[in-house]
Queue: 4 jobs
Job 1
Amino acid sequence: MILGCKYDYKIDMWSLGCILAELFTGYVLFQNDSVQGLLSRVIGIIGPIPEYMMKEGKLVSNFFTREGLIYMEAPDEDEEEQSGVHPSQRKKRVRNEEEELKVHILVAKKTTLK
């Protein structure tokens, strides 16, 4: 769903499994603070996202580079100054075409659910 792929009942089974595991252990399975962080955790625990999903997903380019690396836009100085302000109250800034976009590349840490 995050990547914009078609989905069916299988996603509900995945969600149910995650919820049951969290209820049983008392821990959040994929602790994160962003969608990119979530994707990185899932990849680190389960493994790479299948190629067909990367090709099919309409939203893949929002989270992955063409090389398949997870990225997220780095906050600029104005956004960092407004970090204590509710997002709905932050000033919006339009990027011009010549402005350089700064990003962070997230590297999935290989781990297990243990």
Job 2
Amino acid sequence: MTRYADRLLADGERVVLRTRQHWLAPAAEGRTAWGMLVASLVLVVLDTFFLSAGTLRDLFGYFADILLIVSLAWVGWIVIGWYSEDYLVTNRRVLKVDGILRKRSADSSLEKINDAVLEQSVLGRLFGYGDLEILTAAEAPVDHYSFLNGAPEFKRTMLDEKHRLEQEVYDFPGPPLRAGVPTGGPAPAAGGAPAAVAPAAATDGGSAMSSDDITRALGNLADLRDRGALTPEEYEAKKQDLLRRL
């Protein structure tokens, strides 16, 4: 069965990791509903085994039954909402989808992500969940994932895919995040500021690439241009560089 998030994927986009909130999230965030369910079960037991027949017992039983039905419906809605979640890492972005009847999707392009802050409590490390906050280059949070199942793996996969995208499109051999300039790039200019680097700079000595590699790289370049991460001039310069490698 195709999930809603799969229908949001673009051509050439593939899912690298799929997860959702940890199974403890419905218990923690829906504690009021669970508490009501427990209370209704207690009332049903009292009505069945400890109250004598009569009007009071009938009223008490009606109240317990209504409370049980409402709490079961509430808990069921919470669990279905949890199951409907999809948190994806693809080769282009991080995608977050939630909602049952009314769907909400939010994504963060890998090339716009600068860092990710992961917080794990003692219980989080024990059960394998955490809170992850994704930051842009301006250190502004763009999305927050609470009770994220397998949070360390999610963060590691996201940064690995960002690095692969940088290597494929920009030919960045260095680390994926917080690199002032690419490895082997120009030295910082006077005053300590890094010299301007055109992300699509061509190199005459670039290694040869297969036609499939170039087609895939051109597709990624066009996607970055459409998203505003590359200017038309940078796109054309990198395109010509790639075509010279045929």
Job 3
Amino acid sequence: MEGAIEVQLRTLPMQVAGVVARRIASGEFADGLLPSEQQISGEFVVSRAVAREALKVLSSLDMVEISQGRRVVVRTAAEWDYLNPLLMEWLPQDQIPYLLQELHDARLIIEPGLAARAARTATADDLARMRECLDGMEANLERPERFLEHDLQFHLEICKATRNRMLDRFMYASRWWQSASRRITNRPRSALPAALGDHRQIYEAIEAGEPERAERAMRRHLTVTAPLLDKASPDRRP
């Protein structure tokens, strides 16, 4: 049901991992060492097995390094797995705007090239799926969340059309961040019709098999949306 509240049930290890992850991201462990498995067990009143699983979750996010017989070490923030949606959920909210800016920078580097490549490689089936996304956007100009779904899928279809599995994984894995970014850039009343027009220009260039035109259209689209993120974000970090 549209507009319903999403309820996420977390296992006990995930709940513990979430609390500890927020502490790590807030800089609580300045010495770079995490409490031991036994200390976590005592603080949260959980079994050692639960504490161990929580540490494994943090390790899977590349937030900590676990070595047999040694204290758990906190890894530097640059090493964390930012494409994991759990990390996005657990980071302090004041860090999110900076990461959305970095995502947009990454998109400006990658997506114009994807559009150009798709103009060379897109098949009739690829183009048909892109058209379905455009139709979905047009049908949902008054429903931002539904529009967002088709918007995001349009960009994923462009990537799929390049037949590059590495780039496809990046685009797919970053979809949570991209959704968060679009919820900001789609806020102005004129944003959705403008975005639809931009996407049509990108599609037409890909359909025509014109790589340079497709690249320009994608770059223009992303450049236009950048100021909307800037307005919603604090000053960039130096």
Job 4
Amino acid sequence: MLLAVDQGTSATKAVLVDRTGSIVARGNAALGLAHPQPGWVEQSAEEIWISVQTAVAHCLDGQDAAAVVGVGLSTQRESLVLWERATGTPLGPMLSWQDQRTATECTRLRATGAGDLVAAVSGLPLDPMFSALKARWLLDHYDPGRARSHRGELCLGTVDSWLLSRFGGGHLIELGNASRTQLLDVRAGSWDPRLLELFGVPDEVLPRIVPSSGPFPSIRGVRPLRDGTPVTAVMGDSHAALFAHAGWRPGQVKATYGTGSSIMSVADPATAGEGLCLTVAWETESPTYALEGNIRAAGATLTWLAELVGTTPEQLASVAAPSSDGVHLVPAFGGLGAPWWDDAAVGLLSGLTFGTRLPQLARAALESIAFQVEDVVAALERATGRVQTLLADGGPTTNRTLMQLQADTSGRRVERALAQDLSALGAAHLAGCGVGMWSRADLEALERERERYEPAEDDDSRSGRQSAWHEALDRARGRPHEVPAAIGFDSTCP
């Protein structure tokens, strides 16, 4: 069997997968987030390591650990940790991909025109979500003169790099995760000296880049797994979900709904998508590229509102009204991601009346997810051609109201994967290829059960709702509302 570990923002999951591709056991360990200042989001690297051990132990409880022939790993991506090479001790917190403490520095760099270089080389807009400015912040606070970095005493890495160091030593990073750091020449697949100089990151502190299929260090210290069990796949979580959809086939567009949301489609690296990121989805024999749009607050919006009113996200969704009655919630808690990339945008509730109650707010929270996803899908469509079907996965997709709302808002068929834990499954699929359990053709032939949602809203109603949403977006961005034909981008938007 194969073991896959999916290290996410709010939890670490482990799944055991048999030869048929079925999940036969699961384990889970919840994780916390710290918000020491407004806009700051931190996690503990040590807690993440312990959560991996805990999730694996729960998953393999009562199972034959000796039957595990390979391990796959999927991880949250842009989060960054700094640690001592000799001791493995983290220096300071892990800065989450949601962290916005570098927004002011990001604005300053944009004003110098650096955004053009960053986008051209890394494929990513200059934005606090990515790792490069987090690297500068950590080094400025824990190695301000960069002396320890230049001597090779410190290691900077994303979550995959951190976990691989704990598994078996060494300082490695998988190419797809490296492509999210904003320090990589995305087409050359190597650290770029111009970006390292711009962000003040010595190359001695960075990991060695390896393909998604390795080679990686073997497992160590994760009981009851046997030490020496091979790790044969590492992927970013959104990339792994696309792989689980067999997303290497042309025309596949998937949306992973989680704390945030990732909308992704395989694309030629020469393809330009305004407001979208060019990223490496995975590398086996050669790199596979994708265009992606990242939404910062999807499920996090429901979690925030539920905590505010003292309930759970599931209960909140269950009381949502059939209509928001004109209420809009723009969840720009840390600015807006794709396709706007506006870290100055503010969270906004608009359209409130004396008749507004929790059911309308709950509906507005659900609508905010569907609207944001459709804005990115529309940008992908402009770059790659007609998108008729959206493949959906992730925890929030179990909400049928949200999935029908997505179909109505998009005017597209939505196919929800009935299999859970697609990021973990994708890592297991690639890991299985690494140990000879499956070929790519075998993976294409796997049965993928899906639940289909067809749009039921007429075009005029859909267009009216989208126009009202974009008006609310313009308010959140401090801009006058523009006509729909001009939606999305302007000359100042990276």
